[in-house]
Specification:
Dna Ligase, domain 1; MutS, DNA mismatch repair protein, domain I; damaged DNA binding; DNApol_IV; alpha+beta; cytoplasm; UmuC; 22% strand; 14 helices; 380 residues; five-stranded mixed beta sheet; DNA polymerase, domain 1; metal-binding; five-stranded antiparallel beta sheet
Amino acid sequence: MNRSIVHMDLDTFFVSCERKKNSELVGRPIIIGGGDRGVVASCSYETRFFGVRSAMPIKMALRLCPEAMVIKGDMDMYLNMSQLVTEVIRDKVPVMEKASIDEFYLDLSGMDKFFGCYKWTQEVAQAVTDNTGLPISFALSTNKTVAKIGTGESKPVGKLEVKEKDVQPFLNPLSIKKIPMVGNETFQLLSRLGVRTIEMLSQTPPDVLQQLIGKNGTVLWKKANGIDETPVMQYSERKSISTEDTFSQDTIDVFAVRSILSGMVEKLCYQLREEKWLTSTVVVKIRYSNFDTETKQCRIPHTSADHTLLKYVLELFNKLYTRRIRIRMVGVKFTNLVHGCHQMNLFEDTEEQISLYQAMDKIKNRFGTTSVCRASGLIR
């Protein structure tokens, strides 16, 4: 059976949410971000004309487009709108994967003989706009890779179908940058070898690519040839993530306990970012030597950043630990999770902090979760 995979992407999602709230912003150049040292979380097409892009420092963006209006952004509003879109899509399709706060994959395989997959996708996209007022683009094809590339080529508010016989003619003239897994380093490496289009990449022997960029070389060759068997994973909300540590000996060493909490937070935050979750509730638990157990929690703005969450965890611990008797166990839980594609609060944190988290996560992905960590988490 031929697969029918749809990729849907909300157009300039953050900007669209702000324009829905304030219609006077329609048509104006908009940058969503925070602070002079912050970065661009999202930007309107009016600013992209001048070269502004996501993750660019705000100062640089304003030099390129001085007339742009900078809006700090409201993550809670964006998450609520994302949830509304999720519910609209989930009610209408058999299998839906939520890839990020504004991206969705649908598997409509086998439905073509009943409804017509392209027509059905049009109706789903229209339902999203009717129920939320947000513009959305989509592409329908044989797999995730081609569908995602198709959505990017169809924007803004695009509707595209790439049939199986048209996959290679569609991909061939495009830049290798269009392939989702091709980052800047890989692009520069392949460009130096003269491989700049998907057609040239598809004709490069896979063993050569594997020697150049490692085990992903074969995967990249398959994607360039329109081959991607990755399934659409049914979306389900995760409620919480947590970890606990029961000590071999009960302790009253507050300094050591704080160090353990620091390590816990770092571990959980890495997991949040890897699975693309944001948390809005922090819970700290203590079990004393007499087995009495106490917890304390607080609500916070949605985030997945270590330094933000660690601050709240330590504050809760200081408020919770007042009995001054030995501790048997401590635990940390992050609850009220929502899907989010941002690794940290792009509206408040600096470019340097964002780059630091990205670099640390990259090292952990390659060498293991214990390869790099905060010094405060090593003191026991």
